[in-house]
Amino acid sequence: MDRRTFIGMLPGALTAAAGVALAQQPARIYRIGFLGILSAAQYASRVAAFRSGLRDLGYVEGKNLIIEFRWADGDESRLPELAAELVALNVDVIVTHATAGGIAVKRATTTIPIVMAVTGDAVAAGLAASLSRPGGNVTGSTILIPELNVKRLELVKIALPHADRVALLVHQGSPSNDLMLRLMASGAQSLQLELLSVAVTDPGAFDSVFSRIGEANIDAVLVYEEPMFVANVRAVADVAVGRRLPLFGFEEIADAGGLIGYGVDLIEMIRHAAVFVDKILKGAKPADMPFEQASKFKLAINLRTAKALGLTIPKDLLLRADEVIQ
Prior knowledge:
This protein has helices at 3-24, 44-56, 79-88, 98-108, 145-159, 177-190, 206-214, 227-231, 233-242, 252-256, 266-281, 303-308, 315-320, and strands at 30-36, 65-71, 93-96, 114-119, 138-142, 165-171, 194-200, 220-222, 247-249, 260-263, 292-293, 298-302, 323-325. 44% of the residues lie in helices and 19% in strands. It is an alpha/beta fold. The protein has 13 helices and 13 strands. The protein has a seven-stranded mixed β-sheet, sandwiched between helices. Strands 2-1-3-4-5-11 form a six-stranded parallel β-sheet. It folds into two domains: 30-143 and 266-293, Response regulator (Rossmann fold, 3-Layer(aba) Sandwich), CATH 3.40.50.2300; 145-263 and 297-325, Rossmann fold, CATH 3.40.50.2300.
């Protein structure tokens, strides 16, 4: 081979070598932080949905993705410490849920993107400047829970026309309690309902709390999408039915044995958090990503529970139901 032939072959050889080198470079492995308010066991079905959403978008744990989980096990006082641990790991994005989780992570970092899998009013909680343009490092999905709870109060009045007093269960110390109660007050007044806030510290207090409610001439009990109630929905429903108290609340309430559930598909919302994560990993900025509001709601009525409580559900309400449990 003469010198001119060798030089002519050199550029092609270098290009081929560069291609082989690029092909041998490992794919980037993204690291996601997940801050859970509850325990891993209590949130298992929701984590499974989130993982499923990520797989649908091409993310495989151990191949191009690592998820760092931190669980508060129901103790919200631990959230700041756990959020700081995730920030120290310098993860690419942090996923959390509920107002308490969002506040803890936002206080821990102003630079790492934060995805709210599901939260109450993000603006009222100070997580975003507006839903359309969050303006900071937080985005995700939001439920306007006070407005949704007013709809549930309307369902109480339709299902139980003679109801006067409704107990609203709240998680003691939750940062969203005061705002929610203020916004619900006018709705309750317009429906001529007296709304009583009943604080619950932990699931172990359900029996004593419902015992007090049963002695207070309460016509119905309402629970909302607070993580503790969502994780222990069947326990709440069992105690309510045992005390012969009509239970209203989020969509899963009726399936668990409560009377009427109305709300969004929480598991699907958490699965959808993967879409926000994917966009961020591909370069999108939370500041420019609008919060998405839940738009599809489901009404479920448990006729088996109604019969056990000696109640007759109006036919027009049954016709509106998406699911009737016989």
